[in-house]
Design goal:
With 349 residues, the chain is mostly helical. The protein contains 14 helices and two strands. The chain has a two-stranded antiparallel ribbon with strand order 1-2. A hairpin with a 2-residue loop joins strand 1 and strand 2. It is globular, with a radius of gyration of 33 Å. It starts with a helix and ends in a 5-residue tail after the last helix.
């Protein structure tokens, strides 16, 4: 009886020892696997850095510059939009005296105030109308001119240079030139109209005519870019497609609809997106041509943000930052919706 008991105890002890050894083995294998995986990950990273070190070296300065120029102001702007910072409570130095900032964190109060203000809706509606009008007219004219210049004719190079010229001239120079043309008393346009017996048009003094004028100037500045981009797209379409369609009896409109437009789809979606973002934020044309006037009839979102920060008294830095963040949010939403619609159409972007 005692012998049987001692044998069972020894057997149990042996089983415990085997279980402990097996557990230690599994633990060692697990630790070893983790070490191997960590080592493999580190080795992959080292190989990537060793193989593409030149690319990383070239990209790093750009990333650093973008982080300083764009990243920091963006973070600072978002932070200010959550405070009540204005000209009176920010830190400032007067002579030898330094005054510390006293503005406070207010959360989303600025966003509630801006979104509940009727001014925001007015600015948003006109900004959308301005953007759609400018982009649609610019794209139509650019496409028409690109089709014209894609054909062989005498003096084509001279015409191309003449049409690209507005793009080469600095924007503020073009705007000031147009401001002189639109002058009610001494402008060339009204002089021409007066010579034909037509009364002078208040180009920049009437709200409706002022809106027409800013759209016209922005289209003038935007057509060369659109034309060059679409011309490049047209030249990438194989000419054999047009020859085959013409041999099959397709009309000019059918060739344009079934060959040209599908062939320009990739280029078109890119230039429309870029043009929309640029026009939505086109501060120089509005500010230099009309200063947002007459009254506030041509104010867009970005000029309103500028007015909050530099024109009103006291200057509302938090309010201006709020307008800026909302503009960025609207453009991001548009880009996401635009991208989603393109993906539904089978386009990869």
């Amino acid at each position: 009886m005692a012998a049987d008991t001692s044998q069972s105890v020894a057997k149990a002890a042996g089983d415990d020892v085997e279980t402990d050894v097996a557990a230690r083995g599994r633990s060692r294998r697990t630790d070893s696997d983790r070490t191997d995986r960590g080592g493999k990950g580190a080795s992959v990273l080292r190989r990537a850095l060793a193989t593409h070190w030149y690319a990383w070296a070239m990209v790093a300065p750009v990333v650093l510059v973008l982080g300083v120029i764009i990243g920091w102001p963006l973070v600072r702007g978002v932070y200010l939009s959550l405070t009540d910072a204005n000209e009176r409570n920010v830190s400032r130095t007067i002579g030898v005296r330094h005054i510390e900032a006293t503005y406070e964190f207010v959360g989303l109060d600025n966003y509630v105030d801006v979104l509940s203000d009727p001014v925001f809706l007015q600015r948003l509606v006109w900004t959308v109308v301005w953007t759609v009008a400018c982009v649609s007219i610019t794209f139509t004219l650019g496409l028409a001119l690109a089709n014209m210049l894609n054909r062989e004719f005498r003096g084509r190079a001279a015409y191309r240079m003449a049409l690209i010229l507005p793009w080469a001239v600095p924007g503020f120079v073009s705007v000031f030139a147009w401001r002189f043309l639109f002058n009610r008393d001494n402008g060339i346009l009204n002089k021409i109209l007066d010579g034909g017996g037509i009364a002078a048009i208040p180009w920049l003094d009437d709200p409706t005519w002022a809106k027409f004028s800013v759209v016209a100037v922005n289209v003038w500045l935007g057509v060369p870019f659109m034309m060059v981009a679409l011309l490049g797209g047209l030249q990438s379409i194989p000419g054999e497609l047009y020859e085959a369609a013409e041999m099959d009896g397709a009309s000019a409109w059918q060739r344009f609809r079934h060959i040209t437009l599908p062939g320009l789809r990739t280029v078109s979606m890119t230039v429309i997106l870029l043009s929309t973002i640029w026009t939505f934020n086109m501060f120089p044309v509005i500010f230099l041509l009309t200063r947002g006037g007459p009254g506030d009839s041509t104010e867009i979102l970005v000029t309103q943000a500028f007015r909050e920060a530099f024109v009103t008294s006291p200057r509302d830095f938090a309010g201006s930052a709020t307008w800026g963040v909302l503009i960025l949010a609207l453009l991001m939403i548009f880009a996401l919706v635009y991208r989603r619609s393109l993906r539904k159409q089978g386009e990869v972007w």
